[in-house]
Write a structure and sequence with these properties.
- The complex is a heterotrimer of chains A (345), B (198) and C (557).
- Chain A is α+β, with helices and mostly antiparallel strands and 345 residues long.
- Chain A is 39% helix and 17% strand.
- Chain A has three domains: 2-74 and 91-122, no CATH class; 131-247, Cupredoxins -  blue copper proteins (Immunoglobulin-like, Sandwich); 254-341, Immunoglobulin-like (Sandwich), CATH 2.60.40.420.
- Chain A is built from eight helices and twelve strands.
- Chain A starts with a helix and ends with a helix.
- Chain B is mainly α and 198 residues long.
- Chain B is flat, with a radius of gyration of 22 Å.
- Chain C is mainly alpha-helical and 557 residues long.
- Chain C is 64% helix and 0% strand.
- The two termini of chain C are 40 Å apart.
- Classes of the chains: A alpha+beta (345), B mainly alpha (198), C mainly alpha (557).
- Chains in contact: A-C, B-C.
- Chains A and C meet through helix 1, helix 2, helix 3 and strand 9 of A and helix 3, helix 7, helix 8, helix 9 and helix 10 of C.
């Protein structure tokens, strides 16, 4: 019996330790994906609500746990009492009423807290100065369009930081080109799904600049695991610079004209678009400013010339099962092509 | 198992429990009602949402006659059960056969309607949302009518061979329950497809 | 299995040729044999589903592992979920229902023995059909292989366009077939309980397990058919060019989710309610007191049955329903926790003032109580919609539902195995091995599923075949995987116990636990006809009345 108590005590200590480690990890690791490290109003509201809910459920746990431990230790069969049966009690109406009414009250309180936060977040009106981004989920990459700014990009989202005094939130419209996906950046907001034929809406107002990570959270096929998210929260000036650069057509450097020719005369243009060339494909990511991105293949690899080589020649080596076909280019064509792509700032 | 601790009243009380055939059929009906509900919900949800193709208003004709056939078959099967209980085999055979004829007419009417829809209006299950939900719902019902018809015909064969008697009343009643259910489903399908849907 | 032979002292019974024994088992309509068939079938798939889980856990031991390819991993989690729910838990629970319900109500068999056999073989065939998918030919990209669309097969992932080949069809057809088997068994259970009770056994005198199976049967009827309907619609889409879930034609992916979860949520209550039943039989016997609040337990179960039909969209909080719909499902989900909590209190009330014996069945039920409490509370946490916007689709949910199914249902079911094995086989399971099984499993379970909540809170989504280093998930996943292997060892101990005790276990006699319900009044194993004379009862604990004629329950009714 003592052994059981000790085990339980050890388990509780282990829990407390892991919980503390996790919450402090949040403070230490600024680009993590920790629900306990909110950097935006939605994530913060959720954390406050979670703390409230966790406190209540924690209290319930402590009470019932104590009753359980007490009953299995106090009412054990011992050598002295094991020979007779205890009093045969069938029930008690008062006790039943008590432990019905109290849970009902707890549920009412929990629900009211939930409904309040739920409505505030989900039905928040969109202010006039909000940035609007349309997110389109694909198997297995993210398309971003800024309808009012004329920007089309992929996989790495740039949004402005929001000052608490003069908030400039970002409102995302979520669409899908194929199956279901889900947009989840834990430190900025809860997740919302991208469902075909069912537009969704979410918003966030990041409190500090930096890079925020996440990934697709709704199983969407073979490479669901590598449909990563990378959100760069920029200062207003940096964001304006970024927008201006993204609106330019592609760099047209004569030195890499050979590579551009390879691009334009191969089936690349069936899937990809490069603004300022004939390429206007929508199935794959827009490559106009490919070099403004840190990663390729929706975060599956760093954006280096070696990785670009590998990705074009054998995508399965980086992301087995992605929908990018192996392009079967000759070595010289591939080298020229990558040289060209490397100029697309 | 001694009866010493059991109060005498327990052993003397009459102990009547429901007939298990009826309970089982009720269970089956609940399960089938659930499956039909989902198809009805799909039909209602997709009403007016087809992107192309013929609409219900353009192509559907209300099958009043065949509905009357099917619903009257519920009456005839009810009375068939009653006369079988009284042992009137001849009357049973007539009413039972009439039930089958009425059910068969309904199926014929459905087939006729589908023929018209497919060949005159080009509406198939793959045409649009209306086609998909219409043929699925009406088809699921027709499938259940067909299954019922097969059971009815098996009983008819026994009746023609002179082997149906009062002792089979309970089983016939169980089968009638199924048939009534199929009719009740048609009332719902009819309302949803031909009344609400247009 | 000598249950069908009547031994005459002095005259030996000749051993039967094994072919004849096999034929008897394949053609049996005896509820006891069918019960055993269901249970053994389920245990087989416990091992298979467990191997799939171990493959998953090896792959996830550290970031960027390449133990299996993404395609294989995706098949593993799809098959693991589908197998464990439909071909492990359901058969084992139907097996116990088949074995126990007629015995507990003083009947000689189920209401429809042949339907019983038919339902078993339908369900069994479904499982074999699902696994045939591994062999069923190959198409484009190995598309003829096992299903890999998750056990929910969300639209449009299950459509022809995104699931070429036949793997999704194996999923659809195997579940359609076994679903019909489940409906047959549910009809049988309901008809048996309502129509075959022995004289004197009014509904208010039935063992709680029988009540719980009655409610479970009703729920199966209402909840399994929506899945069948959705699967028929999926087949129409895939083979007849239908557009039920074809978003290009105006169809709705969300509609599939609604239909699936209208099935899926009541389904998990279908799974847990018999576990409640096992606890409601075991805890009183090992506390030496009647169940506390029998009428309230019945009412709470019926309440859970009804309420569970209203909560389904709490699986869809991230899908983008409007705030009123989200609020509705939040309150219904929280509300269903109330009758569930009441049951936990009543079990504690049963133990309170008792003389608790810590035999292995009771150990497992105590584990069930602790773990189900935690599982229910993490459920309440997720019912708070905004919180669920973070927790949904992450490993927090995976931890939660494994807490319910493994920590709750499987523990109670292990208790049931240890409690009724003596009745079924005539021999006791080894207490020593049972305790090894229990403690190993507790350690492994908590190592895996307590820790598993944390990666979810650190942003790890579910159904990913690998993950990035530097997210803080590596060590935690390693611990989770180690726990899985400990659980596997515990299961091996359990299986060994089942086998060795059959041959070497102590003889059990008819009533090894000094219990009070009718199944303990007949021999172990019972004869084919169950009872020499049909019992007549005057209370919910007929054997208590016989053993305590000075203080029978019938006095208090």
């Amino acid at each position: 019996m003592q052994g059981v108590k000790n085990t339980i005590r050890t388990a509780v200590h282990l829990f407390a330790f892991l919980f503390c480690r996790m919450t402090t990890a949040a403070a230490v690791d600024p680009t993590g994906t920790n629900v306990f490290a909110p950097q935006s109003t939605p994530a913060r509201s959720i954390l406050h609500l979670s703390t409230f809910v966790l406190t209540i459920t924690g209290l319930i746990f402590v009470v019932v746990f104590t009753l359980l431990v007490y009953s299995i230790s106090k009412f054990r069969a011992t050598s002295t009492n094991a020979n007779s049966e205890p009093a045969q009690v069938y029930g008690s109406t008062q006790i039943e009423l008590a432990w019905t009414i109290i849970p009902v009250l707890i549920v009412v309180v929990l629900f009211m807290a939930t409904a309040r936060v739920l409505h505030a977040m989900q039905d928040a009106p969109e202010p006039a100065n909000a940035l609007e981004v349309t997110v389109i989920g694909h198997q297995f990459w993210w398309e971003y369009r800024y309808p009012k700014l004329g920007v089309v990009t992929a996989n790495e989202l740039h949004i402005p930081v929001s000052d608490a005094a003069h908030p400039t939130p970002t409102f995302l419209q979520l669409l899908s080109a194929d199956t279901d996906h889900s947009f989840w950046i834990p430190e900025l907001a809860g997740k919302t799904d991208l469902v075909p034929n069912h537009p969704n809406r979410m918003w966030m107002d990041p409190e500090r600049t930096g890079v925020f990570l996440g990934q697709c959270a709704q199983y969407c096929g073979t490479q669901h695991a590598k449909m990563l998210l990378r959100v760069s929260v920029d200062s207003p000036e940096d964001f304006a610079d970024w927008v201006r650069e993204q609106r330019q057509p592609a760099v047209a450097d004569e030195r890499v004209a050979a590579g551009r020719r390879v691009f334009e005369t191969t089936s690349c243009i069936n899937c990809h678009a490069i603004n300022g060339t004939v390429a206007n494909g929508r199935f794959g990511p827009d490559l106009t400013h490919l070099m403004s991105r840190t990663t390729i293949a929706a975060g599956a690899a760093l954006n280096t010339p070696e990785n670009l080589h590998l990705w074009i020649q054998n995508p399965d080596a980086i992301k087995h099962g992605s929908l990018m076909p192996a392009m079967q280019l000759s070595k010289s064509d591939l080298d020229e092509l990558v040289e060209y792509l490397e100029t697309l700032q | 198992m001694s009866a010493a601790a059991i109060p005498l009243s327990e052993t003397q009380r009459p102990w009547n429990l429901p007939y298990r055939g009826k309970v089982a059929m009720a269970g089956l009906i609940i399960a089938e009602a659930s499956i039909f509900t989902i198809f009805v919900v799909a039909y209602l949800f997709y009403m007016g949402k087809s992107l192309t193709g013929p609409t219900p208003r353009e192509v559907l004709e209300t099958p009043i006659f065949f509905t009357i056939c099917l619903l009257s078959s519920s009456l005839t099967i009810h009375y068939a059960g009653k006369v079988l209980q009284r042992g009137e085999r001849g009357a049973f055979l007539s009413l039972w056969t009439l039930t089958i004829v009425l059910g068969g007419l309904f199926l014929f009417g459905t087939g006729q309607e589908w023929h018209r829809l497919i060949y005159e209006h080009g509406l198939t299950i793959s045409t649009n949302l209306f086609g998909t939900t219409y043929y699925s719902l009406v088809g699921l019902h027709a499938f259940h009518v067909t299954a019922g018809m097969i059971m009815l015909m098996i009983v008819a064969i026994f009746a023609f061979a002179g082997r149906m008697g009062t002792e089979h009343s309970r089983r016939v009643e169980v089968l009638s329950l199924y048939w009534h259910f199929v009719d009740a489903v048609w009332v719902v399908v009819f309302t949803v497809v031909y009344v609400l849907g247009r | 299995m000598s249950s069908n032979t009547i031994t005459i002292p002095g005259i030996g019974v000749e051993g039967k040729p094994w072919l004849e024994t096999l034929h008897e088992w394949v053609t049996t309509v005896d509820h006891k044999r069918l019960g055993i068939l269901y249970i053994v079938y389920g245990l087989g798939f416990l091992v298979v589903g467990g191997v799939e889980a171990l493959i998953i856990r090896i792959q996830l031991m550290h970031s960027h592992n390449d133990f299996v390819s993404p395609q294989v991993f995706n098949r593993m989690f799809t098959m693991h979920g589908t197998t464990m729910i439909f071909f492990m838990v359901m058969p084992v629970l139907f097996g116990f229902a088949n074995y126990l319900v007629p015995l507990m109500i003083g009947a000689r068999d189920m209401a429809f023995p042949r339907l019983n056999a038919f339902s078993f073989w339908l369900s069994a065939f479904g499982g074999l059909l699902l696994y045939f998918s591994f062999l069923g030919g190959s198409g484009l990209y190995g598309a003829g292989n096992a299903p890999d669309v998750g056990w929910w097969a969300y639209a449009p992932l299950g459509a022809r366009a995104f699931s070429p080949g036949h793997s999704t069809d194996y999923w659809t057809l195997s579940l359609l077939v076994s679903g019909f088997g489940s409906i047959g068994t549910a009809i049988n259970i309901i008809a048996t309980v309502l129509c075959m009770r022995c004289p004197g056994m009014k509904l208010g005198r039935m063992p709680l397990l029988v009540w719980l199976y009655l409610v479970m049967g009703g729920m199966v009827l209402i909840a399994i058919t929506p899945l069948s309907a959705a699967q028929i619609m999926l087949l129409v889409d895939r083979y007849l060019g239908g557009h039920f879930f074809d978003t290009q034609a105006g169809g709705s992916a969300v509609l599939w989710m609604h239909f699936f979860w209208i099935f899926g949520h009541p389904e998990v209550y279908v799974l847990v309610i018999p576990a409640f039943g096992f606890s409601s039989e075991i805890i009183p016997v090992f506390s030496r007191k009647p169940i506390f609040g029998y009428p309230v337990m019945v009412a709470a179960t019926v309440g859970i049955g009804f309420l569970s039909l209203t909560v389904w969209a709490h699986h869809m909080f991230t899908v983008g329903m409007n705030s009123y719909a989200n609020s509705f499902f939040a309150i219904t989900t929280m509300a269903v926790g109330i009758p569930t909590g009441i049951k936990i209190f009543n079990w504690i009330g049963t133990m309170w003032g008792g003389r608790i014996q810590f035999k292995v069945p009771m150990l497992f039920c105590i584990g069930f109580l602790f773990q189900f409490l935690i599982a229910g509370l993490t459920g309440i946490i997720q019912a708070s919609v905004p919180v669920d916007w973070q927790l949904s689709l992450s490993y927090f949910v995976v931890a939660h539902f494994h807490y319910v199914i493994v920590g709750g249902i499987l523990f109670a079911t292990f208790g049931a195995f240890y409690y009724w094995y003596p009745k079924i086989t005539g021999r006791m399971l080894s207490e020593r091995l049972g305790k090894w099984h229990f403690w190993l499993f507790v350690i492994g379970f908590h190592l895996t599923f307590d820790v598993m909540h944390i990666p979810g809170l650190l942003g790890m989504p579910r159904r990913i075949y690998t993950y990035e280093p530097g997210r803080g998930w590596d060590t935690l996943n390693l611990i989770v995987s180690i726990g899985a292997f400990i659980q596997a060892v515990a299961i091996l101990v359990f299986v060994w116990n089942l086998i060795i005790s059959y041959f070497k276990g102590a003889k059990a006699g008819s009533d090894p636990w000094d219990a009070w319900t009718l199944e303990w009044s007949t021999s172990s194993p019972p004869p084919a006809y169950n009872f020499a004379t049909v019992p007549v009862v005057a209370s919910a604990r007929p054997l208590w009345d016989l053993k305590h004629p000075e203080d029978p329950d019938s006095q208090y009714e």
